[in-house]
Amino acid sequence: MEIETYRPLLFSLAYHLLGSVTEAEDVVQDVWVDWLKKDRREIAQPKSYLCRMTANKSRDRLKRLMQERTQYIGPWLPEPQVQPMWEPLNQEMLSLGLLRLLEQLNPLERVVFVLREVFEWGYEEVASILDQQAAACRQQMRRARQKLALPEKRYAPTPSQVAALQDAFQAAVSEQKLEPFMDLLQEEVALYSDGGGKVAAALKPLHGKAKVEKFLRGIWGVAPASLSYMPVWANGELGVLIQQAGTFYSLMCFELSQTGIREVLIVRNPDKATGLVGFG
Predict the structure, then answer these.
(1) Short-list 258, 272, 94, CA closest to 193
(2) pLDDT for residue 139
(3) Integer angstrom CA distances of residue 6 from 40, 82, 90, 136, 255
(4) Tens of pLDDT, residues 62-80
(5) How much of the chain exceeds pLDDT 70, in percent?
(6) Is the pLDDT reported for residue 117 higher than 80?
(7) Distance between CA atoms of residues 62 and 103, nearest Å
(8) Beta strands of the chain (E only): which ranges?
(9) Strand, helix or coil for residue 253
(10) Is the dihedral of CA 4, 6, 12, 14 positive or negative?
(11) What pTM value is reported for the model?
(12) How far apart (Å, rounded) are the C-alpha atoms in residues 114 and 182?
């Protein structure tokens, strides 16, 4: 059945548009229900048709979610997708930091950006999905990139950078040797902590090494001794899944540049722990 063949593609599309695993699963389920009602003999290109359904349903849902997120308590971060470190890294997945930035785009700009950036579809194919002209899609993409102010190419950390960060983090949480980790922070580093009003978290983004360092020293100074730390890939970036007796506590994710850690993202809202409890 076509819906099963394309389910991973449809989920990835919905997830990148919505920033939520649970919302993406709901959209794919809705697409599946509608698909079963169709006379599929009249559909010449099931993949394009299913992607169009997914994109349109996601756009409609995104309008509601964007309104709801204006009332969110503290910084909003996407619901993460996590892989064990031993699995091949999925570099097609947008990072949590970039998914956070996509909230600046309107729904149409976001759809165009995701179809081009994640799936690398041509403008003609994007236009057919959205019932737009290719020239209009190019303009939407141009506006999206201008709003996001992105570099042309995503930075890929070197193995030595990843190893140094892992070692420094382990020393910080297990031995209270904080300086090696703090030395990795860029001067212009930013930190976003998402508790959703349900658990303790910073209510505003923190910018600059001094503020971020003070915050991290504070939370590591009072962290329960019973916490366990597991290195993971979180949306294609190095992360640490933190659990307490098998229960989700938080996920820390680090975005690196050539000169060190440029962004620290901390997901604490338990509603965003789908699939993470008991992970590994």
Answers:
(1) 272
(2) 96
(3) 15, 21, 18, 27, 30
(4) 999 999 999 999 999 999 9
(5) 95
(6) yes
(7) 10
(8) 82-84, 185-194, 206-207, 227-234, 237-244, 247-257, 260-267
(9) strand
(10) negative
(11) 0.92
(12) 34
Kindly compute the dihedral angle of the four CA atoms of residues 217, 221, 224, 226, in this order, to the nearest 10 degrees.
80
Cβ atoms of 56 and 115 closer than 8 Å: no
Six-digit token string for 186:
């860029």
The chain-wide mean pLDDT, for the chain, equals: 91
CA dihedral 89, 93, 94, 96 (to 10 degrees): -70
Of 207, 202, 174, nearest in space to 188 by CA = 207
Q: pLDDT band for position 155 (50/70/90)?
A: confident
What mean pLDDT comes out for the span 88-109? 88
CA distance 97 to 59: 21
Tokens 């308590």 -> residue: 73
Decide if pLDDT at 182 tops 90: yes
With CA atoms as reference, report the closest residue to 220 among 255, 168, 164: 168
Taking the chain, what is the end-to-end CA distance rounded to the nearest angstrom? 31
Query: In whole angstroms, what is the distance from residue 243 CA to residue 228 CA?
Result: 5
Backbone torsion region of residue 249, taken as left when φ is above 0, otherwise alpha when ψ lies between -120 and 50, otherwise beta: alpha
Q: In which residue are the tokens 């099963």 written? A: 4
